[in-house]
Amino acid sequence: MIDTGVDGVGHRVQVAPHRPVIRPLAEPGATHLPVEAVLEDLAVCALLTDSDGQIRYLNAAARAGLESLGLIGATGTLVGRSVDNLFPPDGTPSPRELPVGPATLRLTERTVHDEAGTPSGRVVSWEDVTARIAEDRSRAALVVDAAATDRVRAALRGIDTVEAATAAALDTVRDAFGWAYAAHWAADDDATLHLRLESRSDGARLRHHLHPPAIAPGTHGLSAQAQQSRDLQAWGERGEFVPGTTGHLPADLLATAGIAFPLLRNGEVVATMEFFATEPVVLTAQRLDSLRNVARLVSGVLERIHNTSALAAIVDSVAAATELLTGLSDEMSRGATQTSDRSASASVASEEVSASIQTVATAAEEMTASIREIAKNAA
């Protein structure tokens, strides 16, 4: 008896003339079972082909799975059709992953031999791994986004001016998240956005306008909508095109997707940042959430630097005012001392004058008495 290989559940496949059979490995002396009987009881999707690759049999799980993918009708059949039409070969060894309709299947193929050792067909089994792949990609994307966010946080660490922090954030977010172009728009007193800074991955010459473009509040475009909504706005795959999104971009930049987020200071939108891709990109909900977190991070750092600088300016002003007042106080103290000295001198002089006047008065009285005495004697 010739062994025929092992299928996906540990059974050895063998072949009687014109009919493959399966014997469990644990029971080498057991009665041979037809392949169809074994496959029918399997929970995994499986089919059997002949030596020409024509489908001979599908188990219940396979029929249900293919129906759910829209590859077979409820009353239809794939028996007699080539398995290669259903699962086109791509040169990848088994097991392999293959996109089929909206799903991704993991295929396992094993050759069935007859008792003469001649290949008599194949058992093809598969499982739908779409959800698992999506979960794996989601976890991988989380790791990538976390690393990108850490890069932004590290780039902003230690910077103490708003201008330097803005430039660092624009360059780092663009590079870390794979954007081709980035721009910073600052709002003036009437909320009109003005282009202040650009960043490109290709090193192309940036625009240097004497009068840079402006975006009026409430108009079209990602930045205008981010300013109005106070939230991140996106355009691209899985995102609706926003009118006016690309009209202000450099003429040589063929954007395929983009996002914009507002920068807030003390609750008010003071600027926006835009980022655009030139390659296909999928803006998943997870990626957009990560970019929202980055927007909050950048806003928080810029707000802290601005407020710290403003506080430092106030402290400097208070210190200068204190120094001035201290100088004035010292001057007034010196003046008061001099005034006191002058008052003391004036008091002494006044006493001397009073004494002199008293002396003169006494002398006058004495003179008057003498005159009177002379007059009396003369009479």
What would you note in describing this structure?
With 379 residues, the chain is of the alpha+beta class. 43% of the residues lie in helices and 23% in strands. It is built from 7 helices and 14 strands. The strands form 3 sheets. Strands 11-10-9-14-13-12 form a 6-stranded antiparallel sheet, sandwiched between helices. A hairpin with a 2-residue loop joins strand 1 (11-16) and strand 2 (19-24). Helix 5 runs antiparallel to helix 7. It is elongated. The N and C termini lie far apart (189 Å). Residues 1-19, 21-32 and 374-379 have low confidence and may be disordered.
Entry keywords:
alpha+beta; disordered N terminus; elongated; disordered C terminus; 379 residues; six-stranded antiparallel β-sheet; five-stranded antiparallel β-sheet
